[in-house]
Each structure stands twice: as C-alpha cells, then as structure tokens.
Amino acid sequence: MTQLIRHLSQQEQLNFLLTNRIPRRLLTRFMGWYSGIESYTLTRYSIALWKLFADDLDLSEARQQKFLSLRQCFIRQLKEGARQIDTADDSVTSPCDAIIGSCGNIDGTTVFQAKGFPYDISDLIPDKSLQEKYRNGMYVTLRLKSSMYHRFHAPVNCDVKKITYISGDTWNVNPVALKRIEKLYCKNERAVVELHTENDESSITLVPVAAILVASMKFNCLNEALDLKYQGPNIIHCDEHYNKGDEIGYFQHGSTIILFATQNFKLCDNIKTGVRVQMGQAVLSQFPKVLDEKN
Length: 295
Fold this sequence. Notes:
Helix content is 23%, strand content 28%. The strands form 4 sheets. An 8-stranded antiparallel sheet has the order 11-7-8-9-13-5-2-15, with no helix packed on it. It has a 3-stranded antiparallel sheet with strand order 1-16-14, with no helix packed on it. It has a 3-stranded antiparallel sheet with strand order 6-12-10, with no helix packed on it. It is of the alpha+beta class.
C-alpha cells in the first residue's frame, strides 16, 4: 500500500510538472496556431495521437466525421438529438458535458475549487452585486476534459445583457493542479455571464474558465473570440435571448465552467463530486414557492 501511494504521488508530481511548469502562454499560443492548420492528413494523425492520451475520445456522436483541422474536432457539433434537455420549469441543466469537480452550498461567499482549497467569490467575480447575490447560494464546478464535447448551452431560459472578460494565466485546470495552486480559477482567463430570467428572485451566472493549450472562449453573441490576443473592452454589452439548451458558445479546448445560483436552488439527488454529466441534464432544482399564509 505504501508503495502504491508513493507511485501515485510520483505520477501526480510528473503530471503537474509536465502540464504546469512549462511556458504556458507560449505553448498555448503554439497550440492555437497548430490546431488551426488545415490538413486532413495532419488532422487525422493528430487525432490518432490524441487518442493515445485520451482513450475516452468518442467522435461517434459528432455531426461530421472528417475534420480539416484539429480545431474543427475540438469544437465539433453533435448530431441532432444526441443530448436530451430537461425541460422542467424548476430545473437548471448542465451547460456542458463535464465531470463535476466540486459542488454544494456557498459558505457566505466562500467556495471550494478542491478539498481544502477555498476561494472567495470576490476573487473570481469583480461585480459586487453578483457577489452578494450568491452569498449562501449554490455552486457547481463543471470540468470539461479535452476529449469532451466543447460547446456550452443555456441552462435556463434567459437573456444575456453583457459578458465580462477577465484576462489572466493559463494554468491547467486538472485535479492535480487544483490541489496544488491556490485560487487557481481566480488566476486564469475567464468570463462572467449573468443569465437574466423572468423570476427576479432567482439568478444564475456562468463563469467559463479557460486553461492551457487553447485558452480561447467564443461566444455566439460576440464577433471576437476572447483569448490571449484579445485587446478589446473588458465589459462587452450584448442583447441576446436563449431558450434552455440553446448554444451560447464554445471552448477551443477542455476547461471549466462554474455555475452559481441563488439560495432558492438545491442540488439534484444524483449530483455530487466526481459524477459525469451531459449537457441538458438537470443539476439544480428550484425550491417550490411557499404560498403566503393569507392565501
């Protein structure tokens, strides 16, 4: 048992060194360039190499089977009907395919990226009004592996009025790094997207966090991708309506989305750390409204 623990520790150390103690931004820029090279032959060999490190890469659900570039594979769309959307009015669905990294109640404004590694909402979200909205609320951290479907969708019927972009680092967001780098999500490139719903008492916000290799987020309502080359304003106004399940945008590589909800929501029974979820699956449900005693 001692030897097994030592072996796992050594593997974890090697993983951390290979994916983080490198020129992250330089490698990310290189990968962005490489993934955009248009060549069916190069892409086929690149995907074959990728499968050696990601044995769960499944392209059978992809709308297309031949890709001109690695980027096309990263941002692939799914066949019609590949995901079922939970349509219950009181549900909040997963915006993406993911593994739940952590989830639960927010302690005041303290959230956990991993066991023993807390961060404050204010370190992640600069908007003070949002910080207060999610005080004692709920959160679900959704980690997208590089092999997963990379597009993200509206978890509720909503309007998006603005997107706040926060430039930062490109740390790997795998579990090894999360246990070693304090406030990692608060250091990385990220965006804050408040979802406005018809119910003023309920609020949902998505925080997509970019990571190493292709630190790029593309929102369908914006002309430019938000990446290391972006030079525009940090607050980008828009006016878009999304029905639950509509596509909002995509990552150009695996990363993380943190979903925040007000305290009138609860986790669905099957949602816990380590569970794999699909886009459209319910992760939160709203507490039923309590009728006024006079009624």
